[in-house]
Each structure stands twice: as structure tokens, then as C-alpha cells.
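Whiteboard transcription, Tuesday session. T.W. wrote the C-alpha cells on the left side:
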């Protein structure tokens, strides 16, 4: 389907979703959120796609929500439109999703990056949650994902001051996986996506689910999920192929079965 605010490029076995509102620094309006959610739904159902990259392009990832739109909203408006809740398809995307971040990833833009499985940042990128300066707080996971990754005191600094952190500091805090020259950000993210796409799809999916469970459940419950998934994978063709390929000293060919 066609989109007005995003671009979708499919290069099997990967796909790239690009936020495309450069005049407003990729501000995240409800329409943008809806299009990203719809695109990810299509890519999840597309068997030719095994991993995806989400980017804002070479200059900016997303400078946050559309403040001109939000300034007019009441509490009831926010509750009924459930703007931040509409990001659920991104957080629940079952395939590997890599954020390629250049320039600013602020507010909702930062939260969107944090919903992804890996983050590749250009060396000039800045990530932050400036919502406090507008009299609000992050509403799409910022107050929860920052402390789970970077710790309480870093999260407090980011939330209470509203000041962004550099790509290098984000890397040191464990927020970002790689920092690369800005002109290489998207290509490096695509390269990683291709590497992940070559792995056994079912094992990748269940590994992702198990890691995410660690943020939501007690250790005993997370270990139970891990154990069941581990056992289940021995019923897959990919497990047989992977182990035989290892023993035969060749590269495995995985079909997601």
C-alpha cells in the first residue's frame, strides 16, 4: 500500500522503513504512527523479509511528537486517541528491528529508537527526552526503558534536565550498539539486518522474545520461557540444518521451519 509520511523499501531478505517528513524534522504525528504500524504489520506478514531497519534518513531520526498538534489536545483527547499506545505494533514486531539514528532522536523519536532491538547511531546523533521542558513527561516508554538500560541515576538526569546525550555517551551507557560515521549509519544498520536475516528465523524470534521477557518478568518466569523455547527449537528443521552444517563445516541454509 502507498504511504504519505513514510517510505518502505523491500530488498529481500530485509526491508527499510524511512520516516519522511523532513520539513518538520520527522515529527511523529498520529498519521505517521499509524503508517509505521501498518507498514510493520505488512512486513511481519511478508515471508521474504526477515529483518527490518527503521530510520529517519541521513539528517534526522525524529525530533519528537508533533507539538503543534499536541498543544491543542485535552487530557480526554489524549486518552481517546491513545497516541502513544499506537506504537504497540513496533514494540511487538516479531522480527529483528534495527534503528538507524542520525541527528536528533528526541522525545517520542528517542522512545521509538528504544523500542527497536538494536540501535546504530551516527557520530553526530543526539538522544534525549526533553518533555519536561514542555510541562509533560515521556509517554511512550522513555521513563521505563531508560532506567532498565542505563540505570536510575542516568534516567533521572535525562528525564529531569531534558538535556540530550551524545551518541558516544549513549554507547557507553549501553543505549546504543554502535557509533559510526553519520554517512554510514543506514548502510551499517542494513548490513547488520542482513546478518540477522541469514540466521535461523525461528531461533531469532524466540531469542528476541526471551530477552524481552527479562524486562517484564521475574527471573524464574523468564528462565521458564527460555527453557521451553530452547526445547521447542529441537522440533524445527532449522535446528537440524544448523547442527548438521556445523558438523559438516559448511554454512547453514535456514528456511524458518
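and on the right, the sequence the group agreed on:
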Amino acid at each position: 500500500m502507498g504511504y504519505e509520511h513514510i517510505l518502505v523499501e523491500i530488498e529481500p531478505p530485509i526491508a527499510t522503513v524511512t520516516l519522511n517528513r523532513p520539513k518538520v524534522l520527522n515529527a511523529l504525528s498520529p498519521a505517521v504512527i499509524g503508517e509505521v504500524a501498518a507498514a510493520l504489520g505488512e512486513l511481519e506478514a511478508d515471508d521474504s523479509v526477515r529483518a527490518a531497519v527503521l530510520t529517519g534518513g541521513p539528517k534526522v531520526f525524529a525530533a519528537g511528537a508533533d507539538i503543534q498538534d499536541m498543544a491543542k489536545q485535552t487530557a480526554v483527547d489524549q486518552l481517546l486517541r491513545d497516541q502513544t499506545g499506537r506504537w504497540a505494533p513496533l514494540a511487538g514486531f516479531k522480527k529483528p528491528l534495527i534503528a538507524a539514528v542520525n541527528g536528533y532522536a528526541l522525545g517520542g523519536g528517542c522512545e521509538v529508537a528504544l523500542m527497536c532491538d538494536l540501535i546504530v547511531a551516527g557520530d553526530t546523533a543526539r538522544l534525549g527526552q526533553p518533555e519536561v521542558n514542555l510541562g509533560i513527561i515521556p509517554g511512550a516508554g522513555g521513563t521505563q526503558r531508560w532506567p532498565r538500560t542505563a540505570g536510575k541515576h542516568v534516567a533521572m538526569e535525562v528525564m529531569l534536565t531534558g538535556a540530550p546525550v551524545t551518541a558516544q555517551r549513549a554507547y557507553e551507557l549501553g543505549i546504543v550498539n554502535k557509533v559510526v560515521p553519520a554517512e554510514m549509519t543506514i548502510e551499517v544498520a542494513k548490513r547488520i539486518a542482513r546478518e540477522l536475516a541469514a540466521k535461523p528465523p525461528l531461533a531469532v524470534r524466540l531469542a528476541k522474545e526471551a530477552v524481552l521477557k527479562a524486562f517484564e518478568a521475574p527471573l524464574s518466569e523468564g528462565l521458564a520461557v527460555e527453557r521451553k523455547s530452547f526445547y521447542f527449537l529441537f522440533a524445527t528443521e532449522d535446528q537440524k540444518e544448523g547442527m548438521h552444517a556445523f558438523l559438516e563445516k559448511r554454512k547453514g541454509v535456514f528456511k524458518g521451519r
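Someone added at the bottom: The first helix runs from residue 30 to 45.
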